[in-house]
Every structure is written in C-alpha cells, then in structure tokens.
Amino acid sequence: MSRGFEGYGCGMAHPRALERIGECVYELAPGLRPGMRVPVRVFGSEALVAALDDQVFVQAANVATLPGIVEASLCMPDAHWGYGFPIGGVAAFDPASGVISPGGIGFDINCGMRLVRTDLVWDDVRPRLAELIDALAAQVPAGTGREGFVRLSKREFDAVLREGAGWAVRSGYGTPGDLAYTEAGGCFAGADPACVSARAIERGQHQLGTLGSGNHYLEVQVLRPEAVFDAELARAFGLDRPGQVVVMFHCGSRGFGHQVATDYLHRFLRAMPAKFGLPVIDRELACAPIDSTEGREYHAAMCCAANMSFANRQVILHRVREVFARVFGRDAAALGIRTVYDVAHNTAKFERHRVGGQERTLLVHRKGATRAFPPGHPELPEAYRATGQPVVIGGSMETGSYLLAGVATGAASFFSTAHGSGRTMSRHAARKRTSGRELLKQMEARGVLVRAASLSGLAEEAGYAYKDVDAVAEASERAGLSRRVAHLLPVANVKG
Amino acid sequence: MTFSFVEGATSDLSFEARGATLEALFAAAAEALLAATVADPGAVEARERVPLALAEPDLELLLLRFLNELVFLRDARGLLLRAGPLRVEPGAEARLAGELVGERIDRARHQLEADVKAVTAHGLRVERAGAGWRAAVTLDV
Known about the structure:
By secondary structure, chain A is an alpha+beta fold. In chain A, about 30% of the residues lie in helices and about 25% in strands. Chain B starts with a strand and ends with a strand.
C-alpha cells in the first residue's frame, strides 16, 4: 500500500510512500520530512491504516523529529489526530538526550480504564438493572463541574498526589488486592506536590470520585459465552462464568491533570527557544529535556496527576462496591467484586526495554495507548505473571469493549497497544446526525439503559462517531501487540 | 465583536473570533468560550468581578492564557465569566490587564453544555484582518 501526502506546509517532500513492512505494520521512512530522526511506524490492518486521517502521519512525523527519540515514532491501530502527538501515539526517549512532552501524554493525565469482576450473572442483575444503574449514577457524579463525596484538606490532597490509589485503600476505599491489580500498584514513583501549582490543586481538590464528561463513562457489562476468545486467559483474569456481569469505567485526573498540563505547556513554550534552543514546530508538541529543571518538575507533577487519577478510580470502585452491596443485599466481598485490572492510557513512564540487543531505561510516552506487558514481565502481579498483563480497551456505548492480554511480540511497540476505538467524526457532526434523546431511546430499545449527565454530550458519543472497536481489537492481535481475551457488551451506562 | 463555531477536528470544538480592536477580539473569544459552556450565555449576569493581569511572549500565547484562565475559574470556582473592561498591549512581552465579570453557576438558570477541559494551542492564531483582528481557537472538550 502507498499513500500520498500533500499540502500540509510542513516541509514534507511528496509523494511519500507508506511501506508495508509486516502483516499489520507500515513504515514512513526518516528523511521524508526534514528533521526526522527515526521512522514512523503504524500498526493496523490495511483498512484501518487506509482510513487514517493524514494529520496522524504529519503529527507522528513531527514526533519523529524530537531529540532523543529511540527506534521509531509509533501509532497504534486506533490512532487519530490529537494535539501534538496523535492519539494512539507512542514514543520512547533516552533519559540523557531525550525530551518529555505534555503533548505526548495528553491533557487528561492517566486517563485510564478499570475492569471489575463480580460473581453475579445476567439473570441475577436483569431484574434490578434499572435500580442498579440509577444508584450508580447517583453515587458516581458525572458531568461538568461535579464534585465528589471525598472532602480533603490541602494536606490530605498532597497525600493523594504522593500515594495514589494507596492513599484511597489506606483511607478505607478499597482493598490491598485492588492495588496489586492496578498498573504500577496505583502509584507512580517520583511524584512531588511541590511541582504542582496552587491552581491545579484548587481545581482538583474536590473532584475525587467523579467521572467527568466527554467520553468518560461507567458501564455494567455482560460476558456472553460466544464473546470469549480465550477461555483460559479469561478464567485467569477472573472471568469464569457464562453471562458474568462486570463493571468497567473510563476516567482520569479531571481538572487537576488538565491544569498541570496547561501550566507546563505555557512554561515549556517560554523555555524552548529562550533556554533550550529547541524549535517549536507545533506548540502542542512543547517539550523540555528530561534532564532539565523544567523536565524533571513536569515529570514530578505529571506523576502527581497520574496518582490522583489512580486514586479517583479507586474511590469510584469503592462507590461501586457500596451500590452493589446495597442493591443485592450482600457485602461486596461476598459478591466476588474485585479489580481485574486498572490500566492507564495517557502517561510517560521510565521503563526498561531492549533496544538493539541492549536493555536500556527509556521514558515511554503513551498517549491514547495502553501498556501491555508480556507473560513473565517482573512488574506484573504474581497472578498474571504467566498470562501477560490484562489490557482494557473501551469502545463506544453501542459497540462494547474488549479485554486483551500483553504478548511477547509487543516488544515491537515498547509493549504498547490500542486504548479504545478512536473517534472518526467530530462532536459537532455527531450531534447533527442524532439527538441525545433519540440515541437514548435507541439504546433502551436495544436493552441498554443509559443515564447521561448531558443529552447533547450523549449524542457526541454515538457508536457511528467511532472506529469499529472489533476491527481495532483484531488488528491489535494481528499486529502482535496484544491478544483478544473477551468482548464485553454493555447493558447499562452512566455517561459523563 | 463576533464569533462563530467552525467544523474542527474530531474530538474538539473550534471557533473563530473577530474584533475591531485587540480588546474586542479577546472579549469575543471569551464570549465564544461562554457560549460553548452554557446554552444561554445571555442568562449569565454580572454579579461578580475578577481582576486579571497576564503577560506572555506573544499575543497568541496571551489569548491562550486568558482563555485558560476562564476555564480554570469555571472548573475550580464555578464561575461563568465574560470579559469586562480589558487593556491588551502587544509587544515583546504581550500584556493583558482588566476584569472578568459574571456569576457563579446556578443550575436552575444555567444549562451547562460542553465541559471545556482546556483551551489548546492547536491551530491557534491571532492575526490582523482588515482594520481589525481575527483569532482561531480550538477547545478540548
């Protein structure tokens, strides 16, 4: 397959060919855009890659120009254009010569997914579904400007930023088992609240336990027997009965993470030309050397936001447990409620990877991309050491979501895979096609109860506004990034 | 002072603002942000005033900072605000001084629309247009 690129005024010579270098891997060679240090590598099926917005390639080529980038600028199968990096973009940087970029992480730092299993099956839940989703919507605030039930002093909020989900468990909002099944144990090392502005703290201090808005949601889902791809892995992950009911939610660090990203974007844009002599090719690609005061402070602040997000999802799980216990009249442990896995998809982390036969520490940016460690990886909890890391890919409320697992061939992407289905239609266009009220009716006719904070926001999240999540999950497997375990279908949704 | 929403990228909301002066341009951009945030911006009354003084290396970054200030004040303090009297000075260090005016969110009177999370630098432009000024802005929602 080859594609041409024209008219972006970014100095790319044309025509430019995208070469197929594997069954589901395509490459744009360095030299096709001035300053590219490494190639762009795109993972995906022929159909998904052909449908990619050309801006994805322009943005990935921009990323390839950043100092200290290692191996390639990567795009996952659900890539679409974002700010600075494409969403679905992965790039690893050398800690001595490389940079850290808020545009490679996203405004919603540690936006991520949590999948929670229960012992309940569809027949148990169906008669109480409306009661259940109403109670979940009441207990997990969603939408603009909502505050959570956890009221914290500045000092307590600092502890959240340092300890992440560990703070929540220590404060009675969860079990130690939840931490074992959370990426990095629910806490990124290196967080320093002193690197966070007072404004970011003011913005986030009362948002713990809230979903937010946009594409964030909390779903009750069902595991249908025909939707299991790998029964052995599913069992190992706690999905062990036909018709099993699970809960999945998608949210991040709320206004806190956005303020951290905004603060450092402004700071980096000032320092890039004046202090570091770095050219600004796209303001959203603002960056600073990892080994600089600005870079270190952003990393420390970003870790605070990642930890706030882990704590947020942990507190939400606590509310989910309370609701299930009340609705089903048994405590959460008796209902078998436990975290299958909590995984981020907007972060930068120092990790060990083999490059050119040598193991190195790299700062891996994943923006709209999920870490997917393979079987045997030392950072996985004992229970998942043999299976590989669970990967949670959120789809639209109409199409369902996927559970996958990390595989050894994922080394080609620094053990990263897709994060969701990726938008294909603007919010504006989606709203014009269907009203929120109409979509709500259609969903209910199909047996999915929806509780939306905003009807206009709901219309923006219709299934047709997204890529085909089945195609994304399949391409992730065929590209060797992760393997499919199960497809999970929603029966009720709380929409932010 | 005018603004209009334009078809932007898939996950955001973009607008163009115009003004005869830089002050009018910044006020138009603030009005666009308010229109993205609430269904009826006319229902936002001038009950509170917030003083503001900002400096950035150029006019585009100054507009970005100004609009992100409005996002912060809504998300952190629940304030719906528009531009009050402003003074905008271009230069090697572009400066803005003045006031924002508005009121606290009252869900009985203010129907909230997009939850604008940040104003982005993506495609951000401030430029002369005839005798006045024009700006292009993209909101992350």
